[in-house]
Write a structure and sequence with these properties.
Blueprint lengths: L1 H16 L9 H8 L16 H6 L6 E10 L6 H8 L14 E10 L3 E10 L6 H8 L4 E7 L3 H5 L1 H11 L7 E6 L10 E2 L1 H19 L4 E4 L8 H20 L23 E2 L1
Parallel strand pairs: 1-3, 1-4, 4-5, 5-7
Antiparallel strand pairs: 2-3, 6-8
Amino acid sequence: MNEQSDNNQSSRESIEDTVDKEDEESFHDLWERIKDTQLSKLDETVELLEDEKILLDDNRMEDVYTWKIVLIGEGAVGKTTLRRSFFGENFTGEYLQTIGADFATKEDTIGSKNKVKFVIWDLAGQPRFKNIRKVFYTGAQGAIFVCDLTNQDSFNNITQWISELWNNNNVGPIPFIVVGNKVDLREEGVLTISDKIINEFTIKTSQETLKRYGFGIKSIITSAKTGYNVNKAFRSLAIQLIAHERHLAKQPKQSERPRVSTKDAVLKIDSPLEK
């Protein structure tokens, strides 16, 4: 028992040593420093969020939240279809490219006393819309990064997308979730990015964001076509945002968070596809 405790303490110290630098860095730089850390050295029972407490906390007064949420990721990964599925619209097989940005709102209840309003901005993922996206990032409080499980590059570019968001929202680091979309294609025998790859990214990144910014990262696999886990994805982000707001409310007021710099680099992942 003592040996295991010593090992856990040593692992935590080694991980903490990697985040002592005060220099600003991009989200890509952050990931590059931690991606080779073995999962066996991480505490895989880390509490990313106190989900049950948030959903079942009946001792609090009713809380009302309004958040600006951005859907980000490469073009054709299913962001618009995901949003439409969340709003109860039927799936169509026709691909309609988002021109710049699309906007919608939806209200929901998380638990018994958390009233939330999503102000959702669906942002075009094509490179030519990059300057337009910067305008719509302003004031964003949360994000859903969507990748196509059949498209390796759509996941590989996650660090660029998060750096772009954090650099242009006038807030800095904000909570986000990772959504691996089009899981229905696995049933058709299409090669897809493994859950293991996405979960590894999520666990390692959460270790860093929890220490630095007070919020964890979650991932979820969805099918915008069938509706599988779509509502769960948005509600998962809502729980993150509620937890983060409660965390910030307990902290002393601080100056604006340091900005992160964007690097034109790509997250390197080995063997991301599996049957």
